[in-house]
Amino acid sequence: MAFSPQITYNNLMHTLQLRSGSIDARRALLEVPNEEILAWLEARGQAPLRARQMRRWLLSGRATSFEQMSDLPKQLREELAASFRPLGSDIARHLISCDGTHKLLLRLHDNQVIECVLLQEADRRTVCISTQVGCGMGCVFCASGIGGLVRNLTTGEILEQLIHARNLLPAEERLTHIVVMGMGEPLANLDALLEALAVATSPQGLGIGARHITISTVGLPAKIRRLADLKKQYHLAVSLHAPNEELRSRIVPTTDKTGLSAILEAADYFYATTGRQVTYEYVLLRDINDQPAHAAELAKLLRGRQAHINLIPFNDVEGLPYRRLTQQALTDFVAILRGAGLSVKVRKRKGADIDAACGQLRRAALAEPTLSPGVR
Ligand code: SF4
Question: 238: Cβ below 6 Å to ligand 1?
Fold first, then answer.
């Protein structure tokens, strides 16, 4: 979609659907174990295949209500609606950027809110999903980490982000890629994430290729090794942000006991085990980790590794003291890495006009009096 400078934050197409904070006690269908659904159906004299039909409606049929599940008996649809919710989350806010990026603020069953983002580029339809409410990793530049970790997301809550994002696409389009780079540390909620990705990659689920899924981590060595041993085709991105221990412990303070070498060794193990090149993410903060000496140190750290570096120029976040680096500093940083023979890319900023950076929309929404006081 062409960039339109006339469109600003104030006249974006956006919907505000902030609703009252009452909690619905019915469980979401994707949260209910299959055996329980089967028992529930049996008690009503219904065939087990109804369970598959219901899942198919949610995962590929784009149903958001039981009423829409037209091949289920009417009586059954009514009973389902009385006992369950088709989806446990709903869209509290939907922003659309002038570059075609959609950002959703989803309200969960307990009134927590999370973010997910749909990015549209050429023939790619990528959704960026969250794995936790808040985050405990404390990266100093990140809006998601400011309030700390609230709780892990369930498998169903992770899947529902994909469903909501997919439902925004025209009927003939489907999601092609997933990046697990939203709110939270994915490897700190690995079991729920793996279950959700199993459904996302299944032909009976969302049919997204495992090679098109990237899991990002600040670096939990034991979990990286576990992920490697599963020998899935998922891509691993390690958020490095600094070329030495001292600086990294200032930028990602909660991981200062882990040590860079343990993280790099685990990433090497991931490559050796899966054959999948590891991406290293590096958020560039002006005058903190963006100097030529940092680039040279980073080049030395990664030289000889099968690595790709993703540079992410920081964009100002209200309330945080960090600033975007200058264009000259970025050019110099890239040149030093490329000069050392490393593969480097600078991430383009998407959805800049809709607070698309991790955690910014949630943070802004939580500060609003219009949002239910129950939402925290
Ligand atoms: S950048 Fe990621 S890991 Fe770090 S605090 Fe934010 S959400 Fe957590």
Answer: no
**Residue 17 in contact with residue 93, Cβ under 8 Å?**
yes
Which residues are 277's β-sheet partners? none
Place of tokens 């008690």: 43
Is 358 a residue of the active site? yes
Instruction: Provide the pLDDT for residue 366.
Output: 67
Cα gap 63→41, rounded to integer Å: 19
Can you tell me which residue has the tokens 């973010």? 115
Place of tokens 């505000």: 16
DSSP character string of 197-250: HHHHHSTTTT---GGGEEEEES--HHHHHHHHHTT---EEEEE---SSHHHHHH
Closest CA to 214 of 124, 126, 305: 126
Which pLDDT value is given to residue 25?
82
- Give CA–CA dist 110/117, Å, rounded: 21
DSSP helix/strand/coil, 364: helix
State the closest ligand 1 atom to the C-alpha of 132, by its place in the atom list counted from 1. 7
- Residue 153 DSSP class: P
Task: Tell me which of 31, 98, 115, 281 is the catalytic residue.
Answer: 115
Q: Which of 342, 329, 252 lies closest to 301, judged by CA? A: 342
188 touches ligand 1 (CB under 6 Å): no
Ligand 1 centroid – CA 154 distance (Å) = 18
pLDDT 10s digits, 261-278:
999 999 999 999 999 999
Tell me the whole-structure pTM to 2 decimals.
Answer: 0.89
Q: Give the list of residues 6+ apart from residue 66 with CB closer than 8 angstroms, or none.
A: 72, 77, 78, 80, 81, 84, 86
